[in-house]
Amino acid sequence: MTETVKKITFDWLQSQETQELNVTEADSTFSLDIPKEVGTAQANVLTMPDDFTIYKAVHRYNPGYRSDTYTLADGEIRFNSQTLIIGTAIGGMVTQYDTHAGKSVQYGNNKTYFSNTGGTYHSHIIQQVKPTITALAIIISHNTLDRFIGEAARVNILKTLGIPESPDVVSHTIPLRITKILQQCVQHHLKGSMKLLYSQVKALEYLCELVEYLEHKKHLISPQQKQLNSIHELHEYLCGLEGKLPSLVELSQHTDMPVWTLNTLFTQEYGMTIHRYITKVRLEQAHAVILESDIAFKVLASKLGYSHVNHFINAFKREFGYPPGHLRKTA
């Protein structure tokens, strides 16, 4: 049996420990090393005879853990060849930063993650803190895809997804009827050969439905709609981003649109230029956070991408007519 995945490694950011998942077994289950005060996590790796891998991880957060997000780990996967990763999450959203592609994407529920990669793939993973989040992925080599659907279809699918070249990563809204097939790929009540066979069948069913949907979508979407979809995806990405905002040139490269077109379409859709809109959203979020917590202004300024706390205070005063300290004086 040839293996698509050679090794899966997690560097746990909270504990500074490294954990390698052994993927030589056809069906392997592991406890993932997150702090007990945060919760528990368990992963299941299934290696299919047809040279693809299914990964499922269930994260259960303790009710007493008070945070909106949890920075889970830096993950590394090593492959034998060029590979497509398809991932989803149930119960919450996951933000994943692909260090090779230099992009961050959010996925979860009907939002699906697609990565065209090869060799070694690195990602930084942040999860929403919900009672339970289940992450599930199909990892399949280009060679195996070519055997299943043909090389031409595989090339067209990667183009339709917007990741024709490696390394690259993107997320798309996929109909829930299709995503549910992916979410059902691993059934723990099944054992042995039956579990592997069931997972294999569901994974192939998902790929068939996905291919048909993408082929149909390719013929329906106009270039203008594709640009508008990119604007919506950019909006979601920027609203979830912490720290310094990328430049317009970097966003232009990220969306494959000229700077003028990008800013014009964003302004038409959201009523403001990109940086004005995101600055306003961040300051409104800061206003709410200051009212609800005692977070230091310096920490908040850093999260919002300001190089100095005074820059944040001045921007806040321009937006609301009073400095952030006014909220705490009147609280």
Ordered list of secondary-structure elements with their pairings:
Blueprint lengths: L4 E8 L4 E5 L5 E6 L6 E9 L4 E10 L7 E11 L3 E8 L3 E5 L4 E5 L3 E7 L2 E9 L3 E10 H8 L1 H11 L6 E6 L2 H8 L8 H29 L2 H17 L8 H8 L3 H12 L3 H19 L4 H7 L5 H12 L4 H6 L1
Antiparallel strand pairs: 1-2, 1-6, 3-4, 4-5, 5-12, 6-11, 7-10, 7-12, 8-9, 8-11, 10-13
Query: Rounded to an integer, what's the Rg over CA atoms?
Result: 21 Å
The largest beta-sheet arranges its strands as 3-4-5-12-7-10-13
Shape: globular
Strands, count: 13
Instruction: Catalogue the unreliable spans.
Output: none
Mean pLDDT over the full residue set: 83
Question: Share of helix among residues?
Answer: 40-55%
User: What's the helix-strand series?
Assistant: EEEEEEEEEEEEHHEHHHHHHHHH
Structural class: alpha+beta
Could you describe the 3D structure shown?
The chain is an alpha+beta fold and 331 residues long. It has a 7-stranded antiparallel sheet. It has a 6-stranded antiparallel sheet with strand order 2-1-6-11-8-9, with no helix packed on it. The chain has helices spanning 142-149, 151-161, 176-183, 192-220, 223-239, 248-255, 259-270, 274-292, 297-303, 309-320, 325-330, and strands at residues 5-12, 17-21, 27-32, 39-47, 52-61, 69-79, 83-90, 94-98, 103-107, 111-117, 120-128, 132-141, 168-173. Helix 1 (142-149) crosses helix 2 (151-161), helix 2 packs across helix 4 (192-220) and helix 5 crosses helix 7 (259-270).
